[in-house]
Write a structure and sequence with these properties.
Low-confidence stretches: none
Number of helices: 16
Strand content: 5-15%
Shape: elongated
Helix content: 40-55%
Number of domains: 3
Mean pLDDT: 89
Radius of gyration: 32 Å
CATH architecture of the largest domain: Orthogonal Bundle
CATH class of the largest domain: Mainly Alpha
Distance between the termini: 98 Å
Oligomer: single chain
Strand order of the largest sheet: 1-2-3-4-5
């Protein structure tokens, strides 16, 4: 061990010792030095004490690029400033590595669902969880929460430029999660901080007309498995897209003519009994009923996906059927235009038709498993009636109306 001014010439002059490491300490910056291993490997080190404690050493980096004498000395000065504040650089580095591992994005999403979404979003947390699982986990799952930057958020939002409603939802969900992380002091600043939120999107009002509904029903037959039966059950039950997609045979009682949506899959967290009408039973019986397992699956393990592609196929078949029906009526072919619609619009279409059939609004909301309007607030607390007979009557009336349309 020796003391001398650390220069390029002095570093080059240090010779290794076969019996152990050789240390040379700088006479200019106390604690800054060079270590040479028996094999001749040279690296810059810093020796320090925190609040008068035992001496500790931290390796700055190996001699050479990027650690020159100048860059290593500047790093040593920075570390000494931290030491003067009573912070141990070695422990700080260990804590940073531990925190980075603990803040794995995928694991953090799971913790956010368990500790925040389920207690605070009891009605909507399953949908939020699916968004995390399908949108952001595949993208950032292995990264640390600390590594996410504004550029990552901008790139994600740009991918939803043509879907403003979805863009708004994803942004709101991530903003809540990152703000929660800031509140817990897991991160210092949200990567969405200062980023303008997408504009609010007006509520959709699209309802499929009578002709569109007929053509959609007929298009389902042409499309075939799995999307044809799937969309017909969307029409017949009026339940949510994902709820029908994840339907399990164990939830279905063909003899009782019911489908019981369990609590863990219902958007509002309440089990929901869906009466199955004759048309719905026919669709399920055609699929070869089982005791358990997903009804709509192509893998046997996961529910169907690829809704956008399926919707494109349905649109194509709907237009073909419309053109054929138009030609049959008027004797000539005319261009067919179908206004933009989504699978979720089927649910609104069903609810609108129930109202047209004279079904009371509270029964319509019960069919939809909606806790809003007449089933929210004080009424929702004190009125626990489930409208089971009325729900069956409503869906049977809807079944009969569909038969009249497509008969």
């Amino acid at each position: 061990m020796s003391n001398r001014s650390i220069t390029l010439r002095s570093v080059d002059a240090i010779k290794p010792c076969p019996s152990g490491d050789v240390y040379t300490w700088d006479t200019y910056l106390r604690g800054f030095g060079v270590r040479v291993t028996p094999k001749g490997v040279k690296s810059y080190v810093l020796q320090y004490r925190v609040n008068g404690g035992p001496a500790r050493r931290k390796t700055i980096g190996m001699h050479g690029s990027p650690w020159t004498i100048q860059t290593a000395r500047k790093e040593a000065e920075r570390l000494l400033m931290i030491v003067r504040q009573g912070i141990d650089p070695v422990e700080e580095q260990r804590e940073a590595k531990r925190k980075e591992k603990a803040l794995n994005f995928s694991a953090y999403c799971d913790m956010f669902v368990d500790l925040y979404l389920q207690p605070h979003w009891p009605d909507t947390w399953p949908e939020a969880m699916r968004t995390l699982e399908n949108v952001v986990k595949p993208r950032w799952g292995k990264r640390s929460l600390l590594s996410l930057k504004r550029a990552d958020m901008v790139k994600l939002m740009d991918e939803y430029a043509d879907r403003p409603g979805r863009k708004k939802y994803v942004h709101s969900l991530l903003r809540k999660m990152f703000n929660w992380a800031v509140d817990r002091e897991d991160i210092a600043v949200s990567p969405l901080h200062g980023m303008k939120a997408p504009k609010a999107v007006a509520s959709r009002r699209r309802v499929l007309g009578q002709e569109e509904l007929i053509c959609l029903w007929l298009a389902c037959e042409r499309v075939g498995w799995p999307w044809g039966p799937y969309v017909r059950l969307l029409i017949l039950t009026m339940q949510r897209r994902q709820e029908v997609a994840e339907m399990d045979w164990s939830e279905i009682d063909l003899e009782a003519e019911t489908w019981t949506l369990p609590t863990e899959r219902a958007k509002n967290g309440e089990a929901h009994i869906v009466p199955l009408t004759e048309l719905a039973i026919d669709q399920l019986k055609a699929l070869g009923p089982k005791m358990q397992g997903l009804v709509f699956t192509t893998t046997g393990r996961t529910a169907v996906s690829g809704f956008s592609k399926a919707k494109t196929t349905l649109d194509h078949e709907m237009k073909r059927i419309m053109a054929q029906r138009q030609q049959t009526r008027e004797g000539e072919s005319v261009p067919i235009f179908v206004p933009e619609w989504r699978l979720h619009d089927i649910r609104r279409t069903g609810a609108t038709n129930l109202q047209a059939l004279g079904i009371p609004i509270e029964v319509t909301e019960a069919v939809l498993n909606h806790i809003s309007g007449t089933r929210a607030g004080v009424a929702g607390i004190y009125n626990r009636y489930k409208y089971e007979p009325e729900k069956r009557s409503a869906l049977e009336a809807w079944d009969q109306r569909l038969r009249e349309l497509v008969g």
